[in-house]
User: Which sequence fits this backbone?
């Protein structure tokens, strides 16, 4: 923990830590409630909570059957908020997402019929299957927290969170997400398989003739209050510099003695990467029930923040070097405060 040298500063951090420890208690309650249906996958659930707390959209990537959709639905059920699931397909239209103008013959006027985007939690299932026009409509909602129908703009109610999934295996009939849209996702979370013990429990749970229900243990106002508390989590200037060094190493690796990966990166992280890494680090400390950020928080979340923000050159692809390899190289090279 980094603190100011004077006694007052130390006391302030102690008070912040105690307060955050109390205010973050609901994260364990959420984990227990969602854990009724989701066995294991703590990594994924932690990232969903980080997105919820830091007000950032998430992109979940994994093969089918890893409970991505179920985890998102369960989290939405545990919070007393409106949930909407949209199955993205190649024939989806922007109106199917945001709504459209309907002519009312009785009143002889057009009225707005709002689409499924008007919810608190949006599950965009297989997001890379929708064409560019639909992605454009979603992009406005993600960035501006509003949608435009006809000549009128409508603000979306907070909390508003897009949780998108995509299948990394099947590429037929898919549209790769543009870099501008990928950058709007705070985290890209890669989901792995459960271990043997977890999968044994999954089998047993599904063989039971028992319907498990997720109860709402949190209200929307609780989420908004926690987001305000997140800004009180203490981040030392040395941690801020550490975040900057990591992001700048993706742009100018030779300045951090990483000349060997210079020709592997076509473009590095944007300023949005620095903002996301700082916010996600605070959220990670929050769910660990700490009132201050340590370097391990930054390292724990760095892959999720950066993996979709790095462009690889043909040389890197020819040598089978991935974004994961490059981020690991950077974390190993950048000096830890």
Assistant:
């Amino acid at each position: 923990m980094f603190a100011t040298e004077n006694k007052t500063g130390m006391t302030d951090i102690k008070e912040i830590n105690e307060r955050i420890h109390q205010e973050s208690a609901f994260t364990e309650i959420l984990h227990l409630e969602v854990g009724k249906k989701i066995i294991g996958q703590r990594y994924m659930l932690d990232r969903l909570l980080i997105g919820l707390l830091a007000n950032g959209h998430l992109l979940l990537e994994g093969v089918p059957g890893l409970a991505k959709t179920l985890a998102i639905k369960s989290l939405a059920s545990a919070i007393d908020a409106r949930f909407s699931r949209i199955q993205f397909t190649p024939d989806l239209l922007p109106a199917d997402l945001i709504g459209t103008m309907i002519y009312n013959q009785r009143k002889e006027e057009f009225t707005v019929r709002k689409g499924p985007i008007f919810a608190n939690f949006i599950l965009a299932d297989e997001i890379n299957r929708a064409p560019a026009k639909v992605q454009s409509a979603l992009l406005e909602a993600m960035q501006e927290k509003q949608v435009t129908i006809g000549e009128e703009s409508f603000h979306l109610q907070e909390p508003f969170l897009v949780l998108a999934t995509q299948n990394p295996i099947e590429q037929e009939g898919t549209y790769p997400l543009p870099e501008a849209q990928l950058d709007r996702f705070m985290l890209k979370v890669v989901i792995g398989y459960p271990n043997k013990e977890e999968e044994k429990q999954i089998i047993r749970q599904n063989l039971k003739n028992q319907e498990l229900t997720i109860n709402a243990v949190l209200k929307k106002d609780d989420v908004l209050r926690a987001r305000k508390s997140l800004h009180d989590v203490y981040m030392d200037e040395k941690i801020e510099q550490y975040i900057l060094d990591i992001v700048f190493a993706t742009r100018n690796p030779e300045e951090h003695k990483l000349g060997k990966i210079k020709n592997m990166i076509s473009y590095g992280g944007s300023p949005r990467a620095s903002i996301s890494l700082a916010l996600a680090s605070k959220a990670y400390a929050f769910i660990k029930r700490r009132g201050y950020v340590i370097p391990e928080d930054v390292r724990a979340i760095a892959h999720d923040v950066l993996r979709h923000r790095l462009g690889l050159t043909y040389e890197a692809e020819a040598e089978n070097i991935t974004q994961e390899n490059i981020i690991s190289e950077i974390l190993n090279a950048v000096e830890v405060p």
